[in-house]
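Quick start: load a record and inspect it. Here is D-3-phosphoglycerate dehydrogenase:
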Amino acid sequence: MFKVLVSDPISDLGIQQLMDAADVEVDKKPGLSEDELVQIIPQYDGLLVRSQTKVTEKIMEAGTRLKVIGRAGVGVDNINLEAATTRGIIVINAPDGNTITTCEHAFAMMMALARHIPQAYAKTVNGEWDRKFLGVELRNKTLGVLGMGRIGSEVAKRAKAFGMDILGYDPFLTEDRAEKLGVKLATVDDIIRNADFITVHTPLTPETKHMIARPQFEVMKKGMRIVNCARGGIIDEMALVEAIDQGIVAGAAFDVFEKEPPEADHPFLNNPKIIVTPHLGASTVEAQENVAIDVSEQVLHILRNEPFKNAVNMPPVAASVMNKLQPYFGLGEKIGVFLSQLNNQAVKEIHVDYAGDLAEVDTQPLTRYIIKGVLSRHFAGDVNIVNSMHLTKVRDINVVVSQASATKGFTNLISVTLKGQDGAERRVAGTLLNGYGARIVQIDKFPVDVAPEGHLIFISHNDKPGIIGHVGTLLGKNDVNIASMQVGRKLVGGEAIMVLTVDKAVTKDVLDELTKLPELNKAQHIIFA
Ligand SMILES: NC(=O)c1ccc[n+]([C@@H]2O[C@H](COP(=O)([O-])OP(=O)(O)OC[C@H]3O[C@@H](n4cnc5c(N)ncnc54)[C@H](O)[C@@H]3O)[C@@H](O)[C@H]2O)c1
Ligand SMILES: O=C(O)CC[C@@H](O)C(=O)O
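Running the structure step on this input writes:
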């Protein structure tokens, strides 16, 4: 039974799928402190949060069973990703579920700003009939959108319908896409100097922190208005207050703050030209259901070891590519497991070569399975596809991936070579054979045909008459039943290998006895657990 802790208020309807799952027990405990979380987290396999819970290294350190942290929303700045990756904890988010809701909030903030709606409301309900509030139209105004991702693009579409001219900047915005969205591709400087309204929709990163600060306010169009429904810190709060005081900025609308919640004396909270909401961008019934449904579904997949999407601490891969790669994951990992047992020296480089059907696909996820296989028997702690690449960096292991079309007659081929620090190499290649599943087809320089399952004995010997008989007799004497046997050699009488599939594990004593046979150089037990 998997246990999942929901530590923030998350839509019940959204997590229904998790609560209904027969193999999952869900505990809802919103509002716990870090210390309280540290106390209870060891019993959980999954943690579901919104933005209130700060998932710190200390919590992950205590969460020895944690496999997945699900963020019901987009931003994962409340989760220590580095700590999660190091521990192999998969972090997933729900990037699409609140896009429209947040876009609508940003748009509502822009309209409220243009027409002083919160200020007028406050006066009216206080008994004051103040008709001096004079707004501006959106029509024919220039809107600058910084960050044309999911939310920024939706804002631009709506602004178009309002008759605004839109300048968009995003390092990933192409001319084509800008044209499709009816947006003029601009530089940050164009936007700063020409926009009547600016709205920011980037993540908070070292590059975007204070991307609008004093130098930018100094060159802005007098009377412009600015909206931040993305992340506190993208706009320098103190510089904004100064720009309002100097009459450069006519008004600002903020849903997010550098520190949340802001202190009671935060200068935004008593400034009549700044309207604020308490990080409500994603707060609609629809968005909260959507993100909770998305994230619950992925958490279930991860707990059940099924393919999943939206991992934040792994590179994104298109679903079509994932479907193509998925059948190879088991083979890739087994090649790695095989090599990790064959190899007996410090690894400097892992070279993965993909051929045939795999030559033109983005094979990054598959490489992670191979590396996981190579490392998992040697590293303390959980090695998985989230932390496997990270672990190679920590251990200074170079990973080289190549793709080639030469398949040596196979429709697909994965060849993995471990290079040791003395330059020695071990190689295992495998393929997926239609109707037969995973097969190992090469070990070092020897062609073989072995199913990577259960227990194998790998023997290197000199190709001399009688050796197969000696091995069979010795194993029989020790009650080890041979299910199949493969012999590989390059030259008659030269170096050779033997791979035996046996029904059970072989003891070290049996291996030692095998090694003492004439012409036998080495015998190893290989296990695919
Ligand atoms: N207020 C809320 O409740 C709320 C809700 C949802 C999302 N958000 C926040 O809104 C922001 C946007 O979310 P999204 O879903 O559209 O994300 P997204 O990833 O789809 O888009 C972000 C875009 O920002 C662009 N970008 C990155 N650095 C940039 C830079 N230096 N200059 C210009 N553009 C840059 C990226 O290329 C990307 O296209 C995020 O910060 C997210 O956390 C807030
Ligand atoms: O959970 C929330 O309400 C905040 C959501 C928002 O900031 C996000 O990044 O998705």
